[in-house]
Design a protein that fits this description.
Radius of gyration: 17 Å
Strand content: under 5%
Bound molecules: heme C
CATH architecture: Orthogonal Bundle
Order of helices and strands: HHHHH
Number of strands: 0
Largest sheet: none
Number of helices: 5
Shape: elongated
Helix content: 55-70%
Number of domains: 1
Oligomer: single chain
CATH topology: Cytochrome Bc1 Complex, Chain D, domain 2
């Protein structure tokens, strides 16, 4: 009898843990909430911006993420990089 409850508990826990991961991750609102603490989006468009390639953008986003306590999953970092590239950088991959 008890076995019946295991899958249900598992699903409930996955739903709780899923709020910041995978498909539910909203790069745009995450960026607004967490990434604008130290700098605004003007650093992405300034004349002397530092990031010059898609790889460098990925590396910088990972570095900046390490300053935050949120600890994003790799998939979420990818979404964030994609978002910044779409909106600001426009590098070819
Ligand atoms: C603890 C402070 C801090 C937080 C939080 C932070 N950053 Fe940064 N970020 C910096 C600093 C410092 C620089 C370097 C600015 C400079 O070179 O003048 C930087 C630079 C960048 C650059 C490169 C800009 C360029 O010149 O091309 C990107 C991209 C970036 N951050 C993305 C992010 C993202 C995405 C987040 C959220 C996950 C984030 N940052 C959160 C401090 C932070």
């Amino acid at each position: 009898m008890q076995l019946v409850f295991v899958p249900v508990t598992f699903i409930a826990l996955s739903a709780l843990a899923g709020y910041a991961t995978g498909a539910d991750f909203e790069a745009s609102s995450y960026h607004e909430q967490h990434c604008t603490r130290c700098h605004g989006s003007e650093v992405y468009t300034r004349d002397n911006r530092r990031v010059q390639s898609y790889q460098a953008l990925h590396a910088q986003v990972s570095r900046c993420d390490a300053n935050l306590a949120t600890g994003l999953f790799p998939d979420d970092i990818d979404s964030l990089v994609e978002h910044l590239n779409d909106r600001f950088y426009r590098f070819d991959k």
